[in-house]
Amino acid sequence: MSEDLFGGAEVGGAGPGVPGVGAGSLADTDRSGLPLAVRMRPRTVEEIVGQQHLLGPGSPLRRLASGEAMSVFLWGPPGVGKTTIASVVSQSTNRRFVEISAVTAGVKEVRAVLDQARRELRTGRETVLFVDEVHRFSKTQQDVLLPAVENRLVTLIAATTENPSFSVISPLLSRSLLLTLRPLSDADVSGLLDRALSEDRGLRTGAGETYTLEPEARADLLRLAGGDARRALTYLEESAAGADAVGSARIDPGAVERAVDKAAVRYDRDGDQHYDVISAFIKSVRGSDVQAALHYIARRVAAGEDPRFIARRLVVLASEDIGLADPTALTTAVAAADAVAFIGMPEARINLAQAVIALALAPKSNAVILAIDAAMADVNAGRIGLVPPHLRDAHYAGAKQLGHGQGYRYAHDEPRGIAAQQYLPDELDGARYYTPTDHGAEAAMATRLTRIEELLGRSKP
Fold first, then answer.
1. Which fold has domain 51-180?
2. Model pTM?
3. What is the pLDDT of residue 317?
């Protein structure tokens, strides 16, 4: 199974969620050999943790669990219950449940599932098709699903960590309900920890023995889990195994610390988390909040983000959000990009941090991007016009007969190095694109531009 009861990563087989404990220990409650996260999988809608906004009377999830045929997209971060919901729906009725992963399934596998669903439907049995990571399906694979959803050959439950509006074809999305799952609160996860400690399928033995989770240890687990239920259960199981190894039934902060080296950063390099953190990072630098900017770049570095991508974004930002308010910003950003390529990680994090601090503290101006976008808008709208004759190339035979270059004034021959003549085409004469701000070095440029406009014989806009 590709996702556990709360939408985390693979849980099948031995792994970090399966503590190595001796027979008869408190942690030895896993008679089937399954990890705690799997054993605690909700069996009914009532046992689902969080998502109360989707579980009210008459809600789509309630109707889906009662057997109503509909297709839904479950959109939310990892560990909030996407696979749980699909599993509960499959158990609540006599429908056949098929799970495929968009990572490994191709068009052939999808067609095979639909063909079997068609045969089952002839016998009166409906099929629930759960597609994990549906955003990884190509357009062709999604097109294969479309007729099956439209004709209700299957009840589609598709899980995704990415915004379906960008990753799912609109015809498929329009024939389904989009349900947004919210991150689990600390209270949700804490309640789940209590259930895991008290229930027989959790860490409670048949003799009724239980572990005691100290308040400080609970706080550590909640912090480390970061709203991910599977992670919380995995850490709890490891902590219980550690406590049991020293003959204790108390899970204290030391047990948690020994079980977990460090918190896994909740950051998906290919999903919404990726784009959300990038967005927050850029907006923090633009907003001159150096503390927030450092926080977000730290998250990106810790998550294994390609440092070259970070550097490229800084180079863009240096011109887009700072521009000529600090002409050195672009030089700083390019130098950081060169340092990343020359030094590599982890040392290059220091160079990136230096650039982030410099750019966050620099005066800001978006006059450069406004200028080029305004100029591009005129060009794209067809406001182009002919180059004035005196500015045209006169370095070829026959140019003089055409009048090219006649009357051109060479700027370096002028007393101030500025030649007053028409430079823009007739259709655009008088157009204004660059309007400097009074921020940083650009304030001096505003003064200089005003004087240049006067020498060019142009009136103020």
1. Rossmann fold (3.40.50)
2. 0.53
3. 95
